[in-house]
Amino acid sequence: MNNVELAKVKAFYYAKVVEFGGDYAEARRFLQRYCNGDWCSLLPKSTDVDWSTLGYCRIKPETVMHPGGEIPKPMQMVDIEIDHSYMQVVFIPKPNERLYFNVAAEDSEDYIKLGLAHATKEAAIAHAKVIYQIED
Known about the structure:
This protein is of the alpha+beta class and about 140 residues long. It contains five helices and eight strands; from the N terminus they run H-H-E-E-H-E-E-E-E-E-H-E-H. The longest helix has 17 residues, at about 5-20. The chain has helices at about 5-20, 25-30, 50-55, 110-115, 120-130; strands at about 30-35, 40, 55-60, 65, 70, 85-90, 100-105, 115-120. The radius of gyration is 17 Å and the shape is globular. It starts with a helix and ends in a 5-residue tail after the last helix. The chain has a three-stranded antiparallel beta sheet. A three-stranded antiparallel beta sheet has the order 7-6-8, with helices on one face. It folds into two domains: about 5-60, no CATH class; about 65-130, no CATH class.
């Protein structure tokens, strides 16, 4: 994690601390750290984060409820930026096929309207697993 990314995570976190009136435990819900090959939540402690021992961390992606469970929040038209030249779209899988595919941003409007477009492959896969009730 470079210094710019860490600064963004810290700024977001401390804004949440202020938003929740100094409640560090509540603000920690919005961060994740990388552990054992996956992202996991921080423990809900009532103290500040020890950034020197935290390691690689990120802002927890937003989620929404789907009838099958919680899914990563799909992209919306306002989310399209120059940085997103391609998006990952949830795919209707067949056995042994991947659960996502790439779509050029200029061709993604229909997928965005359907709530199937994501900025990352991981979010599209998590979405597909909930929709199609695929176990890990």
